[in-house]
Amino acid sequence: MTTWRQDYLLALQARDRSEQAQKPFYDAYTNLADRAATANAQTNENARLSPITEGHAPVQPSKGASFKAPVETSSNAETLTQIQKDLGEAQRSRGTLQSRLQDVSDGLQKSKLQSAIDRKRLDELGSEKAALARRLKDRDEELRGKAKLLEDVHDETVSLTLQLNMAEDQVQKLKKENEDLVERWMARMGKEANAMNEASKFI
């Protein structure tokens, strides 16, 4: 998650990259402006030195001498034309870079807005995660409690089953003993009845 300081540093870095990208054009524009100023100054100086002052005849060049002023004026005109062309190209390049800079700035602004939205969403997801973690912890404790209760019930059931089996064994034992006692008592009563019958014959 980015902070506002990181966003600010990213914006500064984007600005520095943009300025570095435009630096060659700024330098070229400055050089062209210096050349234009120099050419204009040279043109003005040539015009001032030209022999066109009112009331004076043009100075005729001596034999064998060459007249440089027209050549220099033509060269300056060509230089100015080239400079104007270069300036036009520089202006167009500057406009293109300005448009790209605006696009980058707009994209950066959108990215910052999207980052803010993402941070808000991340905060919401963090809160939701914490709430779910608490609910899961509560559910785990509830399940552990139920598992312990189930274990206790199982142990008690096993204990009661053992006690019931022991009680059934005891009932079966007592029942067998009772049957044996009844059989012995019946046998005894039978013998006594027979003895009484035999004794009554002699009376």
Structure, explained:
This protein has 203 residues and is an all-alpha fold. Helix content is 88%, strand content 0%. The chain is built from two helices and no strands. The protein has helices at residues 4-49, 69-200. Helix 1 (4-49) packs antiparallel against helix 2. The longest helix has 132 residues, at 69-200. It is rod-shaped and about 190 Å long.
Task: Provide the fold topology.
Elements: H1 4-49, H2 69-200
For the report, how would you describe the main beta sheet?
none
The arrangement of helices and strands along the chain is: HH
| Approximate shape | rod-shaped
Structural class, from secondary structure content?
mainly alpha
Uncertain regions: pLDDT < 50 for 5+ in a row? 51-72
Count the E strands: 0
Helix content: over 70%
- How many individual helices? 2
For the record, give the distance between the C-alpha atoms at the N and C termini, rounded to a whole number: 124 Å
Q: What portion of the residues fall into strands of 2 or more residues?
A: under 5%
Rg computed from alpha carbons, rounded to a whole number of angstroms: 60 Å
